[in-house]
Amino acid sequence: MKKIVVLMLAFLSYVGVQAQTGKNFPALTGTNLLDKTVTIPKDTKGKYTVVGVAYSQKADEALKSWFQPVYETFIYESEYDVNTYFIGMISGIKEVAAGTIEKKMKKGVDPVLHKHMLLYKGDSKDYKDALGLKEKDTPYFFVLDKEGKIVYTTSGAYSDAKLEKAEEILDEASE
């Protein structure tokens, strides 16, 4: 019985994440670690975009598991011509500490990733609802088409299978 409950919860969480596929990514403006403002999808139109989102410290830790594989696949000497962003959402009481969080990120994140790291400061409720960000301690990943529509969604720590699925979608798009 316990296995059935666990399987059902896993399936429902998968369905909730997949339900966002086909919708437009909501306009989100953040500042990267080079102090440049970026609005997704407005500033990313014309290219496919890979986006990772975290809105808690635990989710941020799991998001870090994606940094190296995403960098190697989509940024460093990549065959893919895509935008790539990792977004840390800072809202509520944490907004007071945003400056400290940003300083720690600048010191703790490899400088080659600074232009790909966005900080969003503000109310996150609308984004949580629009993107189906149900699990606070889980990072979420999206592949957006050239117009900003979500074509792939996944969540959780990095796995080869998740990254391969994103690559498959990008390969199909370039055919």
Automatic annotation (TrEMBL):
The keyword Signal applies. Residues 19-175 form the Thioredoxin domain. Transmembrane segments: none annotated. Coiled coil: none annotated. It holds the Pfam family ATP-synt_10. InterPro entries: ATP10, Thioredoxin-like_sf, Thioredoxin_domain. Residues 1-19 form the signal peptide. Keywords: Signal. PANTHER family: MITOCHONDRIAL ATPASE COMPLEX SUBUNIT ATP10. This is Thioredoxin domain-containing protein.
